[in-house]
């Protein structure tokens, strides 16, 4: 997602990166072993305050404040993962799913 001209936020299996021009820095990296994407960053959506919300798989929902650089995670219900988020006005729509047993 483009945050501003030349500034991109990128999600990957276990983390979040900020690309500013030709420089890339990791904002967050999950310590789980590779191949275990517990905090896979799936999609992004920006709210009216400029916060970037993202789906973070089993970790729930994440929020990145571009102005302060702060990242917060909000856990979803037990045994559900978050596959998508979308800001709609002052609401945050969240899609959860779980495996059937």
Protein topology:
Layout: E1 2-4, E2 7-12, E3 15-20, E4 23-29, E5 44-46, E6 52-55, E7 61-64, E8 71-74, E9 81-88, E10 91-97
Antiparallel strand pairs: 1-2, 2-3, 3-4, 5-6, 6-7, 7-8, 9-10
In short:
This protein has 101 residues and is mainly beta.
Main attributes of the structure:
single chain; 101 residues; mainly beta; 4-stranded antiparallel beta sheet; 51% strand
Overall description:
It is built from no helices and 10 strands. It has 101 residues and is an all-beta fold. The protein has one domain. It has a 4-stranded antiparallel beta sheet with strand order 1-2-3-4, with no helix packed on it. Strands 5-6-7-8 form a 4-stranded antiparallel beta sheet, with no helix packed on it. A two-stranded antiparallel ribbon has the order 9-10. The N and C termini lie far apart (35 Å).
Number of domains: 1
Using only C-alpha atoms, the radius of gyration works out to: 14 Å
In round numbers, the mean pLDDT is 88
Please give the number of β-strands. Answer: 10
Strand order of the largest sheet: 1-2-3-4
Low-confidence stretches: none
Helix content: under 10%
Shape: globular
Beta-strand percentage? over 45%
Q: Compute the separation of the termini in Å.
A: 35 Å
């Amino acid at each position: 997602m483009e945050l501003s001209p030349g500034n991109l936020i990128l999600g990957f299996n276990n983390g979040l990166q900020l690309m500013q021009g030709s420089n890339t820095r990791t904002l967050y990296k999950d310590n789980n072993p590779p191949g275990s994407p517990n905090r896979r960053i799936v999609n992004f959506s920006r709210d009216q305050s400029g916060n970037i919300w993202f789906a973070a798989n089993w970790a729930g929902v994440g929020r990145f404040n571009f102005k302060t650089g702060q990242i917060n995670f909000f856990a979803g219900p037990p045994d559900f993962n978050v596959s998508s988020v979308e800001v709609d006005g002052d609401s945050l729509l969240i899609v959860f799913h779980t495996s059937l047993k």
